[in-house]
């Protein structure tokens, strides 16, 4: 599995979209992520792990499969749209964010935005099946950006964007009603799988209550 960190390296621009019936080819104009690119490399595009099928000195092309079209916001992209880009983490690289797989769980909708001094707070609604993966001060990936969960609501979560994130990613340019790609914390998903059976009930003596009592959960 390729691993990303959620630290955006560059903001790219959609150069071309070749639409098929349920899939498409996406060409992205960029610079930094092309420095050492090879055919077959993985690049996270708004948090979606895509494989480089072709590249030049100023852009790369990737195929977007039908399943990716259904599960992400990539099908809404148009010529000139801006995108968060990150290369897969090198084995000798510094780890600045959190474990990000580039496998988006689904999309969320921005329902509220408020400015508080130098921070922008965003409230994002998601489908109910993912709510268990969020805790205050936990991690989430939104459009490929590693962020801290500042609050959990009945329908989603709240994030806060510091000035650097506002400047170096596309998240700060989003508006109410826009959709974003959301990847839940992969460690939370593995933990849920370990402590539950196929029927969703606790397995053995390891339960959410026992984890909380041991200080592993807030």
From TrEMBL:
Role according to the record: Catalyzes the dismutation of two molecules of 6,7-dimethyl-8-ribityllumazine, resulting in the formation of riboflavin and 5-amino-6-(D-ribitylamino)uracil.
CDD domains: Riboflavin_synthase_like (cd00402)
Pfam family, one: Lum_binding
Start and stop residues of the Lumazine-binding repeats: 3-98, 99-195
Listed InterPro entries: ATP_synth_asu-like_sf, Lumazine-bd, Lumazine-bd_dom, Riboflavin_synthase-like_b-brl
Reactions that this protein is recorded to catalyse: 2 6,7-dimethyl-8-(1-D-ribityl)lumazine + H(+) = 5-amino-6-(D-ribitylamino)uracil + riboflavin
PANTHER family referenced in this protein's UniProt entry, alphabetically: RIBOFLAVIN SYNTHASE, RIBOFLAVIN SYNTHASE ALPHA CHAIN
Claim: Repeat is one of the keywords in the record: yes
Record keywords, A-Z: Repeat, Riboflavin biosynthesis, Transferase
Full protein name: Riboflavin synthase
Pathway: Cofactor biosynthesis; riboflavin biosynthesis; riboflavin from 2-hydroxy-3-oxobutyl phosphate and 5-amino-6-(D-ribitylamino)uracil: step 2/2
Gene Ontology BP terms: riboflavin biosynthetic process
Enzyme nomenclature, EC number: 2.5.1.9
Summary of subunit composition and partner proteins: Homotrimer.
Keyword Transferase: yes
Domain Lumazine-binding residue range list: 3-98, 99-195
A GO term, aspect molecular function: riboflavin synthase activity
